[in-house]
Structure formats: structure tokens, C-alpha cells
Q: What sequence folds into this?
């Protein structure tokens, strides 16, 4: 099953150039995913969400979306693995896009077979539409000019709190080195998207300490305290 029948009835318009498309967003951050939801809403696309590789693969067994946007850092592995799988699949998803806030991630995503890349934070409707339309086959792109407001999207602050609650759960198990690697990159990405520079710096410091082989207990304690501050509304985004 795919969205061919849907697309036959819904044609792109000047204000909603992604009308008729179904976009699967593989993203573990609820805050980042809410931004994608708002971008899809403004553009006319339908959105479905998977928060890990396992969930994404279940989705893809049931239907074929028009486009897939895959975060490279996921709780159960690298999004680059899923990009590679989809790039080699037949029939192929029309547009496979990677997303991340890490400087090296675009190169990794394109090497795995992605058709394009979205840098986080993604808040511009024009940027979002341009990257997706640029990755689609020519016959799937709308003709003529597009009329769009490029006011930035503002994700729900409650989604940010959900991310903080998730991070707090992960930080409870500080003996799991893989979980600590994950929570560092997860919080760095969420903080970057939310403009929370203090939290982002603390998450990046944890990642740097791990990579250098330095003790990380003080980094973990600071990160856990910052997460709790945001959960108890002592810091507003």
C-alpha cells in the first residue's frame, strides 16, 4: 500500500505544494517532531511518526510513504542504516532525507544514499518545502510559483517537557554506557532545536568527555540537574 490513490485526488497548490504527499518522520524527539508536524500542516502533507528504527520498519511494512525524513541519532541505532536500506529497496521511496544538528551528519546521510538533508533546527517552511521538493522526482513537483508565509514554526512547549521526561528516565541508568552516549546526543539535538544553549553545552560536554575517555560523573550530574530544572519549570524555553 502507498499514497498513490491519495495523490490522484489531492493535487499540489500554490499555497500547499506538498498536498497529496505522506511523510514518515523517524524522530525520537517529540519537540522536533512537533516542528515537523507544523511544517507539514502548513505545506499540505500528511505526517506519520516513528520514534525508533523498529517502529519505522513496522510502518514501512504496511505502506510506502512519499518521503521519509530520518534522524541520524535514534535510540536503537543509526538512522544511516535505515537510509541505506531504503535507498536500495525496490520499489523505492521517492524522497529519502536525513536530518540532524551534527556538523558531520549530512555527509554520513548522503553517503548512505539520502536524496537530501535537513539541518536542525528546522523552522523555515520555505527551507522545508525546498528540500523535500528538490528530492522528489520532477513529475511529483508542483508547477508554477509558490505562495508561502515563512513565519517560523513554534513547537508545543509540552513536547519539550516530554523530551525532558524521556531524558530523565534514560539518565536514571548511568551505568549503561550506550544509554549515556545516546542521551548526550539526544539532549544536544533537542536543546539546539529549542534554543536552550545552556543545556546544549552541558550535553556536548558530556559527549566530549566520553570521547576523550575522561570521567563523566560530574557531567552526568550537571545534565540531570538541568533536565530536572526544565521539568519543574524553573527554566522556560
A:
Amino acid at each position: 500500500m502507498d499514497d498513490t490513490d491519495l495523490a490522484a485526488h489531492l493535487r499540489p497548490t500554490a499555497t500547499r505544494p506538498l498536498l497529496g504527499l505522506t511523510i514518515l518522520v523517524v524522530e525520537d524527539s517529540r519537540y522536533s517532531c512537533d516542528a515537523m508536524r507544523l511544517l507539514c500542516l502548513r505545506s499540505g502533507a500528511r505526517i506519520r511518526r516513528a520514534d525508533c528504527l523498529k517502529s519505522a520498519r513496522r510502518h514501512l511494512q504496511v505502506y510506502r510513504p512519499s518521503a521519509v525524513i530520518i534522524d541520524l541519532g535514534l535510540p536503537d541505532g543509526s538512522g544511516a542504516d535505515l537510509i541505506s536500506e531504503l535507498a536500495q529497496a525496490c520499489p523505492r521511496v521517492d524522497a529519502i532525507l536525513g536530518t540532524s544538528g551534527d556538523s558531520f551528519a549530512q555527509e554520513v546521510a548522503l553517503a548512505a544514499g539520502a536524496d537530501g538533508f535537513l539541518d536542525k533546527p528546522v523552522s523555515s517552511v520555505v527551507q522545508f518545502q525546498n528540500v523535500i521538493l528538490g528530492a522528489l522526482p520532477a513529475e511529483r513537483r508542483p508547477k508554477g510559483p509558490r505562495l508561502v508565509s515563512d513565519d517560523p514554526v513554534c513547537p508545543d512547549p509540552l513536547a519539550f517537557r516530554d523530551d525532558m521526561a524521556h531524558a530523565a528516565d534514560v539518565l536514571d541508568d548511568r551505568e549503561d554506557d550506550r544509554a549515556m552516549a545516546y542521551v548526550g546526543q539526544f539532549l544536544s539535538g533537542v536543546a539546539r532545536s529549542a534554543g536552550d544553549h545552556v543545556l546544549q553545552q552541558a550535553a556536548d560536554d558530556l559527549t566530549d568527555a566520553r570521547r576523550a575517555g575522561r570521567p563523566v560523573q560530574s557531567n552526568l550530574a550537571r545534565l540531570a540537574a538541568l533536565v530536572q530544572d526544565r521539568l519543574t519549570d524553573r527554566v522556560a524555553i
Notes: The mean pLDDT is 92.
